Amino acid sequence: MSQLKDKGYAIYDYMDSLYYDGIEKDYEEILNYFENLPIDDYAPELNRYRRYSRALVLPTSGDIEWLPDVKRDGAEYAAYFQGKFNPEHPGSYREFHSIDSHIRDNKLLKKIIMANYEETFWGEEDKIMPIHVGVHFVKLMVDNDEDKAVSSPDCLHQDGEPFTFAHLIERKNVKGGTNAIGIPGVRGSQPDEVDQKDLHEIFEISKPLESYGVDDSAVSHYVGPVMKGSEEGAAVRSVILIDYQLTVVADMDE
Ligand SMILES: [Fe+2]
């Protein structure tokens, strides 16, 4: 049984397990792309930058098919349904700047999407429909000693999508950005407020492509605020978050 299935979460080192000739070059392309992520329009005061695109994984062929964007004022956007578990944006639609097509075609990104997909598990009858994949590029960046960049939501939580994976792209001069995994019952709390026996693990991902994944219904998860470390220059923590969910079909009886 996989660790994800057994424990509800798993930690990975994809730079090692996905290694192929040219992985460094593909990683560099993604890393450079994070340099100029646009500010998150929904949280400009929180030092958060982001892009987002959606894709389908076709269960029979294993192909990735990117969904089309919405054009608005000359920019390309992808729509995102937040789901019901984010207390800061309950049940709302949001639109994000989309990921450019040359990055969508990055071999490493595709390998990561498929490696995560292969970790997910579904009922046999669910796999006749494509699996929906949401790919978020998220950068938290802090310039001043007194500031901090906060993930959303800023507490132990569940995402609402059945599976979510986080992949570290860069961690530079960061204090904080610590991950915690807990039982579902502690969602809504800070890790230091809860009974420590209700936390499975507290850890940091620090190397490129160190990653973790959660079976959302089995655990709650948390990432702490990012603050500046003791070195010169801004604190930067960049991750790719990828969520996996079923195609939702209308109820025939309604
Ligand atoms: Fe989350």
UniProtKB/TrEMBL annotation:
- Native organism: Lacicoccus qingdaonensis
Q: Pfam families, per this entry?
A: 2OG-Fe_Oxy_2
Lineage, top-rank taxon, reads: Bacteria
As one GO molecular function, the record gives:
dioxygenase activity
Protein name (Swiss-Prot/TrEMBL): 2OG-Fe dioxygenase
Task: Give the matching Gene3D superfamilies.
Answer: q2cbj1_9rhob like domain (2.60.120.620)
* InterPro entries (alphabetical): 2OG-Fe_dioxygenase (IPR018724)
